């Protein structure tokens, strides 16, 4: 019997989906009018008079603003404050956007406040006011929840831009921050970096301290100009490396680029503790001490603990989906799956130490700008270097576990038998059609080549969800966009878009053969991919492709797959049917894609090795 609460929650998601307008963001006039309407909506909800009760840290930027907010929240929670965190987009559940003490707001509070906002707006609607669009409604809902929960501090991430963003309804934050700037949403924000910087600087307020990280000089000049115009004291943050003891801190968020975000987070947290009345009331002398330490270039212990514990799903995140015991020693190498399992079991019974090895690992990063794709590629290269050396042929019998990590490598005790597993690297990619795939895939391919990271297989897969509706779209995907992405990748990675089924079926196996030969191992044959015809082949009535495209020797093989369930099933079949294979999958280009993959993995719990889950 279905849970009535689930039905109520689904009804709420349908109501929220009805607020998604589908209008193009490039309509700047509509964007400005919608922002002007925020004051009316807040007044109808009675929130305009209540907002001054919230103590707010407001953060804009192109890259790293979400990570910065996550670090600020974790540091202040570690320092003893009750925190509210508002971010976007969500990955799995819309309640992720509104967090209390790091956890998504509970369903009961979410539903109660959602229906109150809906009903109140409807009761007091004027002839010309209409309904707020999706993000604006969620912004007001988040503020309402934070007021109800009586949080000490709200960390508020800008959705898009700054000047006309719904979050800019906040008129008196305690401190503002601008993370790294780059080119994104140019149809709304402008086509030059100074134009984009001007929009981001729209969150600056008179007398409110503001911080930014080092920027390109033309963008930095614009930030300084706008700060001076409104009377906001603006400073560039102290470099992370300049803090005493920073080299000994292991940030919870992966990648060297997070040091820049950590430096901004420190400035924001320290300034809030040294400025906000609630910080003095709740934190007392400890708050003043921490603020003084940050100002002097020292790291408060509470902040260090928060930075090391910070997590931000879908950004620099590693999930080991299939982790299995490895039969120690080369004797099990090349054995059939059952024989390898028996060898591992026999060694366990004899008291020998058998270490588990990750054989299917997902490296998740929702990068979706040219600059962030380069950063993602560097992170992936560093992350795979931290993974354990391949061990003896693993077994599929026995327990499995889905293990998640943001940065921590598997302990070095597992680094045994370096030549017994063949490693294959897979790109799993999609991006929204409003983005230029050339500007995403070209820097990704170039940076991976620069770091000497080879991609054996590139898979282009639509997400289950759509920005037009919460949850799965329910419509069969049109794969023409994914075929276009594949062609762009092939042009940069040396692949081919030929669709001959024999070439497709043999390409993947040959990719494994070369890697296996290097390791002195027998070739590893992969199962064929499900048939997905190319647009041209489908129009001509040709037989659909049966596997991965092959091109020149050593080139990456590429394919379009119909959905994530099929993709996940194929990847799991690969490692199950080839005991000597390890697959490392980089998932990037879209937070929708990353979030939907997380739904699949989470729906199956810690078992990890079962069939494909349902989103």
Automatic annotation (TrEMBL):
Cell location: Cytoplasm; Mitochondrion inner membrane; Mitochondrion matrix
Cofactor note: A monovalent cation.
Functional pathway: Cofactor biosynthesis; tetrahydrofolylpolyglutamate biosynthesis
One Gene Ontology CC term in the entry: cytosol
Reaction catalysed by this enzyme: (6S)-5,6,7,8-tetrahydrofolyl-(gamma-L-Glu)(n) + L-glutamate + ATP = (6S)-5,6,7,8-tetrahydrofolyl-(gamma-L-Glu)(n+1) + ADP + phosphate + H(+)
Listed Gene3D superfamilies: Mur ligase, C-terminal domain, Mur-like, catalytic domain
Xref: SUPFAM superfamilies: MurD-like peptide ligases, catalytic domain (SSF53623)
GO biological process: one-carbon metabolic process
Major location (coarse): cytoplasm
GO terms, molecular function: ATP binding; metal ion binding; tetrahydrofolylpolyglutamate synthase activity
PROSITE patterns found in the cross-reference section: FOLYLPOLYGLU_SYNT_1
Ranges where the record places region Disordered: 390-417
Annotated residues for binding of Mg(2+): 88, 157, 185
Name of protein: Folylpolyglutamate synthase
Lineage, opening ranks: Eukaryota, Viridiplantae, Chlorophyta, core chlorophytes, Trebouxiophyceae
């Amino acid at each position: 019997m279905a849970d009535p609460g689930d039905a109520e929650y689904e009804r709420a998601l349908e109501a929220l989906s009805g607020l998604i307008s589908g209008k193009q963001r490039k309509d700047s006039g509509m964007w400005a009018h919608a922002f002007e309407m925020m004051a009316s909506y807040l007044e109808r909800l009675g929130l305009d008079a209540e907002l001054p009760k919230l103590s707010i840290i407001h953060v804009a930027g192109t890259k790293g603003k979400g990570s910065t907010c996550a670090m600020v929240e974790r540091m202040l929670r570690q320092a003893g404050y009750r925190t509210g965190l508002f971010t976007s987009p969500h990955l799995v559940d819309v309640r992720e956007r509104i967090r209390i003490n790091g956890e998504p707001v509970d369903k009961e509070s979410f539903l109660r406040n959602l229906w109150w906002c809906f009903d109140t707006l409807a009761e007091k609607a004027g002839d010309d006011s209409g309904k707020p669009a999706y993000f604006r409604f969620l912004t007001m809902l988040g503020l309402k929840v934070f007021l109800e929960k009586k949080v000490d501090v709200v960390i508020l991430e800008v959705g898009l831009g700054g000047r006309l963003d719904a979050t800019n309804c906040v008129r008196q934050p305690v401190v503002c921050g601008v993370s790294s700037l780059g080119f994104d949403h140019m149809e709304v924000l402008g086509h030059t970096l100074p134009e984009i910087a001007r929009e981001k600087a729209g969150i600056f307020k008179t007398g409110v301290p503001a911080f930014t990280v080092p920027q390109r000089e033309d963008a930095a000049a614009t930030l300084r100009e706008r700060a001076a115009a409104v009377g906001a004291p603006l400073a560039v943050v102290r470099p992370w490396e300049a803090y005493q003891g920073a080299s000994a801190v292991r940030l919870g968020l992966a990648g060297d680029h997070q040091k820049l975000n950590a430096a901004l987070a420190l400035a924001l947290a320290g300034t809030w503790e040294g400025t906000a009345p609630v910080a003095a009331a709740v934190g007392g002398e400890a708050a003043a001490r921490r603020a003084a330490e940050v100002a002097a270039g020292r790291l408060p212990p509470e902040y260090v603990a928060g930075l090391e514990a910070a997590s931000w799903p879908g950004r620099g995140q590693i999930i080991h989906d299939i982790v299995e015991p490895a039969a120690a020693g080369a004797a099990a190498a090349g054995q059939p799956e059952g024989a390898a399992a028996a060898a591992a079991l026999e060694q366990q019974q004899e008291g020998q130490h058998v270490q588990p090895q990750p054989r299917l690992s997902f490296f998740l990063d929702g990068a979706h700008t040219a600059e962030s794709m380069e950063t993602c590629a560097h992170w992936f290269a560093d992350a795979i270097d931290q993974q354990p050396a391949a061990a003896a042929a693993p077994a599929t019998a026995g327990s499995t576990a889905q293990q998640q990590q943001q940065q921590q490598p598997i302990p070095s005790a597992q680094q045994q038998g370096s030549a017994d597993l063949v490693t294959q690297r897979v790109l799993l990619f999609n991006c929204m059609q409003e983005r230029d795939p050339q500007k995403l895939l070209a820097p990704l391919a170039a940076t991976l080549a620069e770091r000497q990271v080879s991609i054996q297989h590139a898979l282009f897969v639509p997400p289950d969800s759509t920005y037009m509706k919460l949850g799965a779209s329910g419509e069969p995907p049109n794969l023409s966009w994914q075929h276009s992405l594949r062609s762009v990748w092939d042009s940069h990675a040396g692949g081919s878009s030929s669709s001959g089924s024999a070439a497709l079926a043999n390409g993947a196996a040959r990719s494994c053969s070369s890697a296996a030969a290097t390791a002195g191992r027998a070739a590893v044959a992969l199962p064929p991919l499900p048939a997905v015809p190319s647009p041209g082949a489908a129009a001509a009535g040709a037989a659909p492709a049966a596997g991965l495209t092959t091109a020149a020797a050593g080139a990456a093989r590429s394919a379009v797959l119909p959905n994530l369930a099929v993709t996940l099933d194929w990847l799991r079949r690969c490692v199950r049917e080839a005991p000597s294979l390890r697959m490392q999958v980089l998932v990037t280009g879209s937070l929708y894609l990353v979030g939907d993959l997380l739904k699949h993995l989470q729906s199956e719990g810690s078992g990890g090795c079962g069939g494909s889950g349902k989103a």
